[in-house]
């Protein structure tokens, strides 16, 4: 079984067994992968509001129906949030305290889980359309940047949008905007293109996260709101405890990517 | 009755009577206005092919069902192509030979009429969404430019795409791309933004048609394929006879603009 053809259920089972602990990029092609955020209910209620009013950086794909329940049902599969991801991070008061393959020992009866859309879904749609995604063709992590664009804050959650950046010639950028507009639950249309300084980015060669990518003749940078935003916002808010996925070790669901298209 | 509230049928009747001979911009808001091209059948068959393979500059909204019939039925209204527009141009072998309010005397029993989408429809949708359309807020004709982007030619019809240009900040350009993508029969998504030289435009201050518009801080030019393209292509092909509308004196139909939205 190749990484592409393994089923999401089989991959989650291997993650649960502890036999799959690697990055999920390139696995289970065609299916939605998500970021994970787990918060105590006293913080989760406010996070729902934050997500609702910041849908581009924080698009919710699924969430717990009942606080404390470690099972989230997605497409008729019961996903055990404690064990079905290949890697987790445990945060206390905004500090990373542990990396785990299983977080059962940290589970609390007030935990609420959030599955947040990830760029893998729209990148797959762009590649299928014939566009070159530089971070993928280059084999590097997408470049990401802090901006001066403020999220709409709640009482405890506030901060600026973090963006990922992909270079395109304008013709391809227009097509990219069309395709990404169809996928609001994986960050939707970009928020900016062209002059980086207009959104507070002063050196496009030096991303704040990930790695720089090559620009070719005529290409302009296109900036998309990024799932790193809620992670940074939560870290800054310092909840007593929070669990997230390890970067790149995503939750693989059985939702077909095409299902996220709104038209 | 104000220009906005006059019905398309009433305006066409006044045009037929010879009592309305002015520009149609701002009249019958909410309804589709179109460019007109009338060609003999021996040229019209090829023009159908040209339009099919160049849908962005040459989007067909309606056409004659039978050569020679001066009536085109649109939304259950019988439009008399010979008289229902406020102004016509008659071309022979690519030369303008006459401007008329009625072209009955030129009508031939092999004429085929083409109604071609016009930017008024998408501009109305953009304004409704809160965007500033500079040529409208400035009260001038939209700037248009010859480009080096070739139309897909047929045997006798060939030439480069003519574009209209509207300035937007990138955030509004992204929204403009989304909205215009919904309207493929009025030129659809833009074909380029940013560097004018990339499509062969060397002086943005000096449009080839229309008037220049002001750029404000952070705005980039956004270029949309324009209905002047088929007029230029036809003039260059020099058919023995061709009838078009006079610039700005469009055919006003009873099609609601929203009907042109594909989603």
In DSSP terms (H or I, runs of 4 or more residues), the helix count of chain A works out at: 6
- Name the structural class of chain A: alpha+beta
Rough shape of chain A? globular
Task: Give the oligomer, counting copies of the same chain as homo and different chains as hetero.
Answer: homodimer
Largest sheet of chain A: 7 strands, antiparallel
Percent of residues in beta strands of chain A: 25-35%
Largest interface: A-B, 19 and 19 residues
Instruction: Give the number of DSSP strands of chain A.
Output: 13
Chain-averaged pLDDT of chain A: 96
How far apart the termini of chain A lie comes to: 33 Å
* Helix-strand pattern of chain A: HEHEEEEEEHHEEHEEHEE
The whole-angstrom Rg of chain A is 18 Å
Give the uncertain stretches of chain A in residue-range form: none
Helix content class of chain A? 10-25%
Structure, explained:
Two copies of one chain form a homodimer. With 263 residues, the first copy, chain A, is α+β, with helices and mostly antiparallel strands. Helix content of chain A is 22%, strand content 28%. Chain A contains six helices and 13 strands. Chain A has helices at residues 8-17, 41-53, 120-128, 134-137, 170-181, 228-237, and strands at 31-40, 60-63, 71-74, 77-80, 88-92, 95-100, 111-117, 144-150, 160-168, 192-193, 220-225, 242-245, 251-256. In chain A, strands 1, 2, 5, 6, 7, 12 and 13 form a seven-stranded antiparallel sheet that branches. Chain A has a four-stranded antiparallel sheet with strand order 8-9-11-10. The relative contact order of chain A is 0.25. The mean pLDDT of chain A is 96. The A-B interface holds A 169-171, 173-174, 177-178, 181, 189-195, 198, 218, 220, 263 and B 169-171, 173-174, 177-178, 181, 189-195, 198, 218, 220, 263.
């Amino acid at each position: 079984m190749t990484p592409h053809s393994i089923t999401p259920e089989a991959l989650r089972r291997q993650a649960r067994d502890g036999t799959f602990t690697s990055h999920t990029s390139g696995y289970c092609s065609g299916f939605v992968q998500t970021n994970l955020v787990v918060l105590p209910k006293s913080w989760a209620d406010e996070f729902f509001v934050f997500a609702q009013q910041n849908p581009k950086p924080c698009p919710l794909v699924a969430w717990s129906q009942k606080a404390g329940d470690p099972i989230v049902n997605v497409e008729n599969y019961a996903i055990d949030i404690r064990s079905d991801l290949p890697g987790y991070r445990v945060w206390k008061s905004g500090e990373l305290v542990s990396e785990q393959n299983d977080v059962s020992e940290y589970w609390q009866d007030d935990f609420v889980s959030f599955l947040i859309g990830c760029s893998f879904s729209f990148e797959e749609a762009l590649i299928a359309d014939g566009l070159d995604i530089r971070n993928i063709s280059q084999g590097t992590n997408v470049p990401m940047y802090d901006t001066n664009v403020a999220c709409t804050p709640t009482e405890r959650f506030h901060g600026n949008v973090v963006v990922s950046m992909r270079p395109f010639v304008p013709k391809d950028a227009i097509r990219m905007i069309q395709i990404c507009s169809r996928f609001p639950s994986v960050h939707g249309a970009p928020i900016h293109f062209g002059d980086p300084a207009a959104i507070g980015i002063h050196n496009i060669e030096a991303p704040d996260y990930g790695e720089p990518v090559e620009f070719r003749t005529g290409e302009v940078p296109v900036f998309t709101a990024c799932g790193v935003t809620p992670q940074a916002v939560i870290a800054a808010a310092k909840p007593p405890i929070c669990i997230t996925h390890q970067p790149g070790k995503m939750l693989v669901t059985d939702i077909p990517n095409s299902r996220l298209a709104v038209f």
